[in-house]
């Protein structure tokens, strides 16, 4: 594939409400959009990192630097031999930086698929036209606010509720949501590494509430800790931060550290590795679901396509645009009967709204290949 230019565009979009997790609070989503121009197509993708290295070691300024100084030169050196399938191998000598690698592979894959008229869903192997949507509910200031927020999301049709938890905001919110909304709603929690194995007895207090899963209770590098915790609590353990590759997924499953996996393409270096995790999990009877990083319509489009694969059997954090943004960068993703439709156009299948893009852009850098 011949690449003419790569544009790195910083954007900042206000969130409809602040989103608080055990590692911090954000009120706007900053990201780097990558636009790959070829003679026949334009590929787009969105960096998943946040401004600070709090979810993982990656952060936006670091990502911009590593893309410009370490990743793009390796892709440029491949000349016209470059294809999306060769990106990961070309970038493998650079350690880490999965999200920065992912945004490049995804933008190149988008351009490549647009050149051939194939959608992400078709290319990845989606087997449905729409995907059930869950919603991730941040930590709030009071239990009253939480009940209101969950009630609203359920009224909108969300098929599963995920509560962010941390020490001091765990058993009581879960109990209250169960008591208020009943035993039939699909409910799960996400700790973003906020606990240690010493909290096992405390976390066992979640057992009576029939949660689908507890996501990433312990440190990302504590695989054996998760395996030990699995023997001490009844709630199934799902890993997010710990799984950075298909090899990690295979090891975590083999060691009994998780019985569910949150697949976030950016965290694992892209959609091609994400699909391998899907396949390994399927082969082991481990269900997966698609996570999110508060993506705009650009990143959401590709996530929704991935969530159409057969072993994505649990609703994902693939919420509608208006859960995050009053104005998205693309036509909004909307809930239809609690599900989002997978775009069918070439590549990610969504058009970027130029005027909105301009409004939220804070800087642009163009690199000529
Ligand atoms: O751990 O899943 C997470 C958002 C930012 C960083 C980490 C996480 C999240 C979410 C929200 O839970 C997912 C979404 O709605 O995009
Ligand atoms: Mg998570």
Describe the fold and architecture.
The chain has 369 residues and is an alpha/beta fold. It has twelve helices and 13 strands. Strands 5-6-7-8-9-10-11 form a seven-stranded parallel sheet. A four-stranded antiparallel sheet has the order 3-2-1-13. Helix 1 (60-76) packs across helix 3 (98-116), helix 5 (143-156) crosses helix 6 and helix 9 packs parallel to helix 10. The N and C termini lie close together (12 Å). The model has no long low-confidence stretch (mean pLDDT 98). Bound molecules: 2-succinylbenzoate and magnesium ion. The site of 2-succinylbenzoate has 11 residues, from loops.
CATH architecture of the largest domain: Alpha-Beta Barrel
Distinct small molecules: 2-succinylbenzoate, magnesium ion
Largest sheet, described in full? 7 strands, parallel
The total strand number stands at 13
Helix content: 25-40%
Q: What is the CA-based Rg, rounded?
A: 20 Å
The helix/strand series, from N terminus to C terminus, equals EEEHHHHEEHEHEHEHEHEHEHEHE
Counting DSSP H or I runs of 4 or more residues, the number of helices is 12
- Poorly predicted segments: none
Task: Explain briefly what this protein structure is.
By secondary structure, this protein is of the alpha/beta class. Helix content is 34%, strand content 21%. Bound molecules: 2-succinylbenzoate (OSB) and magnesium ion (MG).
């Amino acid at each position: 594939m011949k690449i003419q230019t790569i544009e790195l565009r910083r954007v900042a979009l206000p969130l409809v409400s602040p989103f608080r997790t055990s590692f911090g609070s954000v009120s706007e989503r900053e990201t780097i959009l990558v636009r790959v121009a070829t003679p026949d197509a334009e590929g787009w993708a969105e960096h998943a990192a946040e401004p600070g290295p709090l979810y993982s070691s990656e952060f936006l300024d670091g990502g911009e630097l590593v893309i410009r100084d370490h990743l793009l030169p390796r892709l440029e050196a491949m000349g016209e031999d470059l294809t999306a399938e060769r990106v990961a191998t070309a970038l493998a000598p650079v350690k880490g930086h999965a999200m920065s690698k992912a945004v490049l592979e995804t933008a190149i894959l988008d351009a490549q698929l647009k050149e051939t008229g194939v959608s992400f869903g078709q290319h990845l192997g989606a087997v449905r036209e729409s995907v059930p949507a869950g919603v991730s509910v941040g930590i709030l200031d009071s239990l009253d606010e939480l009940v209101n927020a969950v009630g609203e999301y359920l009224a909108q049709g969300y098929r599963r509720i995920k509560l962010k938890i941390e020490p001091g905001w765990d058993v009581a919110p879960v109990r209250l949501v169960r008591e208020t909304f009943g035993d039939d709603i699909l409910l799960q929690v996400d700790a973003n590494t906020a606990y240690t194995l010493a909290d096992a007895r405390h976390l066992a207090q979640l057992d009576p509430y029939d949660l689908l899963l507890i996501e990433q209770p312990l440190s990302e590098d504590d695989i054996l800790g998760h395996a030990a915790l699995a023997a001490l609590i009844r709630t199934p353990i799902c890993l997010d931060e710990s799984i950075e590759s298909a090899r990690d997924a295979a090891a975590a499953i083999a060691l009994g550290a998780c019985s569910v996996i949150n697949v976030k393409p950016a965290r694992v270096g892209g959609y091609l590795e994400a699909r391998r995790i899907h396949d390994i999990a399927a082969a082991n009877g481990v269900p997966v679901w698609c996570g999110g990083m508060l993506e705009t319509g650009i990143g959401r489009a590709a996530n929704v396509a991935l969530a159409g694969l057969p072993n994505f059997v649990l609703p994902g954090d693939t919420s509608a645009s208006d859960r995050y943004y009053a104005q998205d960068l693309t036509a909004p993703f909307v809930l239809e009967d609690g599900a989002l439709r997978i775009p069918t156009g070439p590549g990610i299948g969504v058009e970027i709204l130029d005027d909105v893009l301009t409004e939220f852009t804070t800087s642009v850098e163009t690199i000529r290949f």
